[in-house]
Amino acid sequence: PYLIRDLRALPGGDTLQGTAAMDLLERWGRNAFDSTTTGLRWRGGPLLDASVGVDAGSASALTWRGGAGAWLEADAGKRWSFHLDGQAWNENWSDYLDTLVDAQQVSLGEGYAYGDDEARSHYDWNGWASFVPDDAFVLTVGRGKHFFGEGHRSFFLSDNAGSYPFLRINTEFWKIKYVNLFTVMDDIRGAGGTPS
Asked: Would you state the torsion angle of the CA atoms of residues 176, 182, 187, 193, taken in this order, to the nearest 10 degrees?
């Protein structure tokens, strides 16, 4: 998770819209979710995912993915921020991926895969709480994924891992940014779709 102050310092800041794309959403968010008395500001919305494809070399040529979920963020003053998102999918993979999912009982990058049918279900959720004690430190605890960099030059800790619990301490001084990342990662391959 990035802080807005970090994003605004990047070149090309004109791509960061200061207002919502639709005036209605801007008014709805500002009027319904800002509280000047408590200093709490929050925003949220639905998450939808749908795709259809064709696997030309397989017996069942149609592949598809459908998912739904929601996200919610809150800022409590200038020092605390919170995030929570979750999404569930039902998916029919192409043959080469279905073989892997069937053997490992894991949906790549999204955790346990449930079911023995042609399509399998899986879900993922992420959440974090962040505290900014001063200009030099940011403390974040939560569950999610991490990468460093932008776009194709990013350094992933693992692009096929599911979300994991973490404690992150960002320290920034002069021209140095130092990240301490403490995580707990589990190998869930072959778990049969159950966390035990």
From this structure: -110
Q: How far apart are CA 48 and CA 53, in angstroms?
A: 17
Residues 157 and 79: their CA atoms lie apart, in Å, by: 27
- HEC secondary structure over the chain: CCCHHHHHCCCCHHHCCCCCCCHHHHHHHHHHHEECCCCEEEEEEEEEEEEEEECCCCCCCEEEEEEEEEEEEEEECCCEEEEEEEEEEEEECCHHHHHHHHHHCEECCCEECECCCCCEEEEEEEEEEEECCCCCEEEEEEEECCEECCHHHCEECCCCCCCEEEEEEEEEECCEEEEEEEECCCCCCCCCCCCC
Report yes or no: 67 and 50 within 8 Å, Cβ to Cβ: yes
Among left, alpha and beta (phi > 0; psi -120 to 50; other), residue 61 is alpha
Whole-number Å distance between alpha carbons of 87 and 125: 6
pLDDT in tens, the chain (196 residues): 566 666 666 666 555 455 555 555 555 455 445 555 556 777 888 889 999 988 887 666 788 899 999 988 888 888 888 999 999 999 888 877 887 787 777 887 787 888 777 788 888 899 999 999 988 999 999 998 887 766 666 666 666 677 889 999 999 888 888 889 998 877 766 555 555 5
